[in-house]
Amino acid sequence: MTHKPIIGITVAHYTEEIKSFPREFYVEAVRRAGGQPILVPPVKLQEDAQEIIQLIDGLLLTGGGDVSPMLFGEAPRRGIRDCNPERDLSEIMLTRIALAENLPLLGICKGIQVLVLAAGGGIYQDLVSECPGSLEHSQKVPRDSAWHEVQLAESRLAFLLEEETIGVNSFHHQAVSRLPEGFIANAIAPDGIIEGIEKSSAGFCIGVQWHPEAMGQEKNSQRLFAEFVKSASLNS
To answer: Is residue 227 situated within a structural domain?
Structure first.
């Protein structure tokens, strides 16, 4: 009997989870796209991370707090906010195994930053202090509303969405500063900040800086989740 593709959704440690936006939107976005969502709490051991990756058909890296700078070899800079090293270590470990296994992977907001660091790239710890000419990337309108546009480069994402420019919501102060080897930038904000990446050689490996799960009725968000779950179905 065939089953729906199982999508592992990373969740925060309890103390962070109660302060961050609920996982409900991620769960419902996966369900609408035809996947079976399961929540993946932080793991500490490599063998546990490996076992989880073997159980799921796709990995969804969710939003949350800042990534702990010591984990990517930097001292904390002015503007850094709350970090949860337990969650960060777990997600980096899961992501590296998923990349090695070519497991379909979608990173959202913090998830794009985890993806970049796990693959060997770099991030800005704080856009306000490191990129003083950047836009305001913490929006002042409701979560399901677009805040600024991004330009899509020639990429799988652009092919999937059939657009050159799209409106996105924005809730971040960290961002990609250096692409990992094998990745391209597929979406750029008007201030030059990288808002989307993908691994060209992967079956499905995309990170976006916005929150498509919170724009669930918008066609581009639905297409992104549908393609992610479709790719995961090939593993189910």
So the answer is: yes
For residue 10, give Cα distances in angstroms to 23, 89, 108. 9, 12, 11
Total domains present in the chain: 1
Virtual torsion, Cα 83, 37, 231, 122, nearest 10 deg: 0
Residue 75 lies in a domain: yes
Residue 170: closest CA among 151, 189, 183: 189
Q: With respect to residue 144, please indicate whether it lies within any of the assigned structural domains.
A: yes
Task: Indicate which residues carry an active-site annotation.
Answer: 109, 211, 213
Domain that holds residue 43: 6-233
Residue 178 sits in a domain whose CATH number is 3.40.50.880
Tell me, yes or no, whether 1 lies in a domain: no
For every one of its 236 residues, what pLDDT tens digit does the chain have, with 9 covering 90 and above? 568 999 999 997 666 655 555 678 999 999 999 999 999 999 999 999 999 999 999 999 999 889 999 888 988 898 898 888 999 999 999 999 999 999 999 999 999 999 999 999 999 999 999 999 899 899 999 888 989 999 999 999 999 999 999 999 999 999 999 999 999 999 999 999 999 999 999 999 999 999 999 987 789 999 999 999 999 998 76
